[in-house]
TrEMBL record:
It catalyses: aldehydo-D-ribose 5-phosphate = D-ribulose 5-phosphate. Homodimer. This is Ribose-5-phosphate isomerase A. Substrate binds at residues 33-36, 90-93, 103-106, 130. The lineage of its organism: Bacteria, Pseudomonadati, Pseudomonadota, Alphaproteobacteria, Rhodobacterales. The active site is at 112 (proton acceptor). It comes from Rubrimonas cliftonensis. Pathway: Carbohydrate degradation; pentose phosphate pathway; D-ribose 5-phosphate from D-ribulose 5-phosphate (non-oxidative stage): step 1/1.
C-alpha cells in the first residue's frame, strides 16, 4: 500500500502521479533515485498491480531504488538487458527554465545520467521548490575516483578559480564521518557555487580532469518537467526545441 504523504511531500507525490500518464503497457522504464522517484516507483507498482499497465519492466538507477521497486512488485532488468529505454522518470535538485538540472543530491548521479541518456525521453518530477531561475544554489555534486582524490579536488578548485560562479567552496561528501561511496564505488565532491553562469563550460572543464567521472549537471537531457504543488496540482513544462 502507498504511504500517506506529509504536507511537505504532497507536491512530490502529485508530480509522480501525473507522470503515470506518460507510461504505457510494454514500456521499458528508467527508475530514478530519491524521495520523489520513490513516489513514482510506489505508484507505478500499485498501477501495475491494479492492471492499469501490463508488461512494464524497470531499470533502477540505484540499489536503493531497485530494492523499493522489488518491494513494490515491479519487474526489473538491467540496462544492458533492456538495451534501450522508452522513458526515464527521475527527480532533480534544481530545474532551470530550459530544463537543465542539478542532480546527485542522493548520490546516484552517474547511473541516473547513464540511464536517462539511454532513454527516448526523460521526465523530471519535482515539488515546485525545485524550479529555479539559475542553477547553483544547490551544491553541485561531482563524482570522483577515490585514487588521488585530494589531487582531483585541488584540480577542481583550480577550474573553479576561473569559472563564472559566485561561490567556490568544495567539500568531500561524508556519511557518518566517513567518505560517502556511490553504488559504483566512487566519492562525491559537493561544490557550493551559489550561481552557475556558464554551466556547459563548467561541465566540460570539470569532466576534462582525469579523476572526475561526471558532474550532476544534466544539460539538455530532460524533455519535460512536472512540478507538483502541496495542494495536489501540477504544472508541466516541456524543454525548448533544440
Ligand atoms: O539526483 C537525485 C539522486 O541522486 C535525486 O533525484 C535528487 O537528489 C532529488 O531528490 P528528492 O526527490 O529526494 O528531492
Amino acid at each position: 500500500m502507498t504511504k500517506t504523504p506529509s504536507a511537505a511531500d504532497a507536491g512530490k507525490r502529485a508530480a509522480a502521479l501525473a507522470a503515470l500518464d506518460d507510461v504505457q503497457s510494454g514500456m521499458r522504464l528508467g527508475l530514478g533515485t530519491g524521495s520523489t522517484a520513490d513516489w513514482f516507483v510506489r505508484l507505478l507498482g500499485e498501477a501495475c498491480g491494479a492492471g492499469r499497465f501490463r508488461d512494464v519492466v524497470g531499470v533502477p538507477t540505484s540499489l536503493r531504488t531497485g530494492e523499493l521497486a522489488e518491494r513494490s512488485g515491479l519487474r526489473l532488468t538491467t540496462l544492458d538487458d533492456a538495451g534501450w529505454l522508452d522513458l526515464t522518470v527521475d527527480g532533480a535538485d534544481e530545474v532551470d527554465p530550459e530544463l537543465n538540472l542539478i542532480k546527485g543530491g542522493g548520490g546516484a548521479l552517474l547511473q541516473e545520467k547513464i540511464v536517462a541518456c539511454a532513454s527516448d525521453r526523460m521526465i523530471v518530477i519535482a515539488d515546485a521548490s525545485k524550479s529555479v531561475d539559475v542553477l547553483g544554489a544547490f551544491p553541485l555534486p561531482v563524482e570522483i575516483v577515490p585514487f588521488g582524490w585530494e589531487t582531483t579536488k585541488a584540480l577542481v578548485e583550480a577550474v573553479l578559480a576561473d569559472a563564472d560562479v559566485s561561490g567556490r567552496e568544495t567539500a568531500l561528501r561524508l556519511a557518518r564521518d566517513t567518505p560517502f561511496i556511490t553504488d559504483g564505488g566512487h566519492m562525491i565532491l559537493d561544490l557550493r557555487l551559489g550561481r552557475i553562469g556558464a554551466p556547459r563550460r563548467l561541465a566540460s572543464e570539470l569532466v576534462a580532469i582525469p579523476g572526475v567521472i561526471d558532474t550532476g549537471l544534466f544539460l539538455g537531457v530532460a524533455d519535460a518537467a512536472i512540478f507538483g504543488r502541496e495542494d495536489g496540482g501540477t504544472e508541466r513544462r516541456d524543454a525548448p526545441k533544440a
